[in-house]
């Protein structure tokens, strides 16, 4: 069976659910998931390690952290500040958040590799200005049981009686809304053109290329 | 939009097509893999019953979890052993070349590519590791990718991405004694911010960059991501070609060297190139830079006062306040005199031969402070062997350093080399994030290798330029 013929992946046009705020700029991937939890060969079970060192002390007692708070359990929209996800390229970071329950992230800005990793998992990353995000974080804090509506198509976040204008990166918008974020399948379809580029590159010796089956 | 830069040219050479998402399908000339971010990607391929498309263009090593002391198999740590076995199985099944520790070629992925000559100008290089920009020192367009993208590359030898803007960072002037490449990049990140490079590729140039050897250029490109830039590069020049001519790939094949050099020359940035942004920095003003906080952007000159959060914008001020609380430093103080418990000389930023040579000159004839545990983790087995051939290992061990095997080690604390409790570490690595070196209460002070050596012997952050009898040239 060929993935290419399976048709587009699921679209992610909107996410609805309760929110959870994580405040602070420059929250890095070592905070999102400490490296010692990455000695694994699958992503299974990473959810429990999300923000682990912020959530637990040396004796594994819970510390003050939104991910520990009863009122935020079940939340699926994470609201963050600027440069969220900076640092390592580890996909373990969005994997841990996703497996904890996060389906969408709204923030001031995201580190590039992190946002790309989120897209690969179908997690939209919407951006808005500092004031709007602060207001949204405050609202989520005050209304942990109320749902907000992240509209990827219209690039808005509706909460209470408010509507926040957010931005979804152009390629991300297209990928999620049209359901074409399975890049493996998209690019496999262009195998012949890929081969042409490989053969055109002066630094690639022909013996480094796989034999073409039709030559047999 | 930029035009005529190395990045523009390499992008065009490697473009396969435009995808329905609007992204470019970009061909990958070299895919480097290691044990931490690749196993899940191989798992995804198995789920879809897809083979590795271009196994000859992928190259594997083991660096993150590998022990640096006892490397006998099975590794003492079961999880590490399992990751190693998984990698061995994956590369065997796919027919991928693997520099395991028995080959003598093992090392940190960003050290071994350049030393073997597989990192070359004008090549697109990706790896599931954010410090992949290191390879940009050779004029490669190199960047870190996530595991789903590793799957893409294994399956198609391509990645889907949008073209970025190009910022030229012109570093003028001459470095003073004791000031190194590391100090230049820490200064760049301090000035432009940890997210200043988001959306950009950095082109480093100017007199101070051109005067650097390849190792210094690698230290600079390595930390591009700490300033938010996914990739950073230096245009290839004679320094680059001299390095390449001596590598495995080209030493015995001058004809191939000349053929490839034609391409390398062709992708250099044009004199008439246009950039999206240009930033100029004067390197002659720089002194050794050390970090006082918990992001690589929180750096200061060794004689400068730690900044006051009250004088910063609100977001930065919050980050700074938390950082100063964690590090237990006060605004107005300098970092000189800050007590150190551990000295770590290693990482993909600063564990190459000239780094070890420079540090050894500081250490020679001195002893590691009684309250400091100090160790050297060479970047690769080849670096280790070359250092031993010059007797550097003896200088370090006589002074009281541990002399270890190659790996990422305490840069990120995935093996047994970790900070304990609230230990403070003088580190030649690239990240001072809270928890980065294995302990959530650990404190990291980033600095250049000579400064690490100085801190090891004095037990505190020390201006190496002030140490008597140290040769800094």
Q: What does this 3D model show about the protein?
A:
The complex is a heterodimer of chains A (216) and B (473). Chain A has helices spanning 29-32, 52-55, 92-100, 112-120, 130-142, 170-178, 183-188, 191-200; strands spanning 14-21, 77-80, 104-107, 125-127, 147-151, 156-159, 162-165. By secondary structure, chain A is an alpha/beta fold. Mean pLDDT of chain A is 93; it is low at 1-8. Chain B is α/β, with parallel strands linked by helices. Chain B has 2 domains: 6-266, Aconitase, domain 3 (2-Layer Sandwich); 289-466, Aconitase, domain 3. The model of chain B has no long low-confidence stretch (mean pLDDT 97). The interface between A and B is large, with 66 and 86 residues.
What's a concise summary of this model?
The complex is a heterodimer of chains A (216) and B (473). Chain A has 216 residues and is α/β, with parallel strands linked by helices. Chain A has helices spanning 29-32, 52-55, 92-100, 112-120, 130-142, 170-178, 183-188, 191-200; strands spanning 14-21, 77-80, 104-107, 125-127, 147-151, 156-159, 162-165.
The N- to C-terminal Cα distance of chain A equals 23 Å
CATH topology of chain A: Aconitase, domain 4
Query: For the report, how would you describe the main beta sheet of chain A?
Result: 7 strands, mixed
CATH class of chain A: Alpha Beta
Oligomer: heterodimer
Question: How many beta-strand runs of chain A?
Answer: 7
**N→C terminal distance of chain B:** 41 Å
Helix content of chain B: 25-40%
Number of helices of chain B: 15
Indicate the low-confidence ranges of chain B by residue numbers: none
Per CATH, the architecture of chain A is Alpha-Beta Barrel
Mean pLDDT of chain A: 93
How would you describe the shape of chain A?
Answer: globular
Q: What is the alpha-carbon Rg of chain B in Å?
A: 21 Å
Q: What's the total helix number of chain A?
A: 8
Strand order of the largest sheet of chain B: 5-4-3-6-7
Q: Structural class of chain B, please?
A: alpha/beta
CATH architecture classification of the largest domain in chain B? 2-Layer Sandwich
Which pair of protein chains has the largest interface, and what are the residue counts? A-B, 66 and 86 residues
State the CATH topology of the largest domain in chain B. Answer: Aconitase, domain 3
% residues in beta strands of chain A? 5-15%
């Amino acid at each position: 069976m060929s993935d290419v013929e399976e048709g587009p992946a699921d679209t992610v046009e909107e996410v609805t659910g309760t929110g959870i705020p994580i405040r602070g700029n420059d929250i890095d991937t070592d905070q999102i998931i400490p490296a010692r939890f990455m000695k694994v060969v699958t992503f299974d079970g990473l959810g429990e390690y999300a923000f682990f060192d912020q959530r637990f002390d040396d004796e594994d007692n819970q510390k003050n952290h939104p991910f520990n708070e009863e009122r935020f359990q079940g939340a699926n929209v994470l609201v963050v500040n600027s440069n969220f996800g900076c640092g390592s390229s580890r996909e373990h970071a969005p994997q841990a958040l996703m497996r904890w329950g996060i389906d969408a992230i709204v923030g001031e800005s995201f580190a590039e590799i992190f946002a790309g990793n989120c897209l690969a998992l179908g997690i939209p990353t919407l951006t808005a200005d500092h004031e709007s995000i602060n207001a949204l974080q405050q609202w989520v804090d005050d209304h942990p049981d109320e749902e907000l509506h992240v509209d990827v198509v219209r690039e808005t976040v509706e909460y209470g009686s408010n509507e926040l204008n957010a931005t979804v990166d152009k390629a991300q918008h297209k990928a999620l809304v049209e359901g074409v974020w399975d890049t493996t399948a998209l690019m496999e379809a262009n195998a012949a053109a890929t081969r042409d580029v490989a053969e055109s590159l002066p630094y690639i010796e022909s013996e480094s290329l796989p034999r073409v089956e039709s030559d047999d | 939009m930029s035009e005529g830069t190395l990045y523009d040219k390499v992008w065009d050479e490697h473009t396969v097509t435009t995808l329905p998402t609007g992204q470019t399908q970009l061909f990958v000339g070299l895919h480097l893999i290691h044990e931490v971010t690749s196993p899940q990607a191989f798992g995804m391929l198995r789920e879809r019953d897809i083979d590795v498309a271009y196994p000859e263009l992928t190259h594997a090593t083991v660096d993150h979890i590998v022990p640096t002391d006892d490397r006998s198999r099975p590794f003492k740590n079961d999880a590490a052993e399992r990751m190693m076995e998984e990698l061995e199985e994956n590369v065997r099944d796919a027919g991928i070349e693997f520099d395991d520790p028995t080959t003598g070629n093992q090392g940190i992925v960003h050290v071994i590519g350049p030393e073997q000559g597989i990192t070359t100008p004008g090549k697109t290089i990706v790896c599931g590791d954010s410090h992949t920009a290191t390879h940009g020192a050779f004029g490669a367009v190199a960047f870190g990718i996530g595991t789903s993208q590793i799957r893409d590359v294994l399956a198609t030898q391509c990645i889907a991405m949008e073209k970025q803007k190009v910022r030229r960072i012109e570093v003028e002037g001459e470095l003073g004694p004791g000031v190194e490449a590391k100090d230049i990049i820490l200064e760049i990140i301090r000035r432009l911010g940890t997210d200043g490079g988001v959306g950009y590729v950095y082109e480093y140039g100017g007199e101070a960059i051109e005067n650097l050897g390849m190792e210094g250029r690698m230290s600079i490109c390595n930390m591009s991501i700490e300033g938010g830039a996914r990739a950073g590069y230096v245009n290839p020049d004679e320094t680059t070609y001299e390095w390449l001519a001596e590598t495995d790939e080209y030493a015995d094949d001058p004809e191939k060297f000349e053929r490839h050099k034609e391409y390398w020359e062709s992708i250099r940035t044009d004199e008439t190139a246009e950039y999206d942004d240009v930033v100029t920095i004067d390197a002659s003003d720089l002194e050794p830079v050390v970090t006082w906080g918990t992001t690589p952007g929180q750096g200061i000159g060794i004689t400068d006062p730690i900044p006051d959060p009250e004088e910063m914008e609100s977001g930065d001020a919050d980050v700074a306040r938390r950082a100063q609380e964690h590090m237990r430093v006060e605004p107005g103080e300098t970092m000189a005199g800050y007590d150190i418990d551990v000295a770590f000389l290693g990482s993909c930023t600063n564990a190459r031969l000239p780094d070890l040579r420079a540090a050894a000159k500081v250490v020679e004839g001195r002893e590691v402070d009684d309250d400091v545990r100090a160790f050297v983790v060479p970047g690769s087995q080849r670096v280790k062997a070359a250092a031993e051939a010059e007797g550097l290992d003896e200088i370090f061990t006589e002074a009281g350093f541990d002399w270890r095997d190659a790996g990422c080690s305490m840069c990120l604390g995935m093996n047994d080399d970790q900070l304990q409790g609230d230990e403070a570490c003088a580190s030649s690595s690239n990240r001072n994030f809270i928890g980065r070196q294995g302990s959530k209460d650990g404190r990291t002070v980033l600095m250049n290798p000579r400064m690490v050596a100085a801190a090891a012997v004095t037990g505190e952050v020390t201006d190496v330029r002030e140490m008597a009898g140290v040769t800094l040239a």
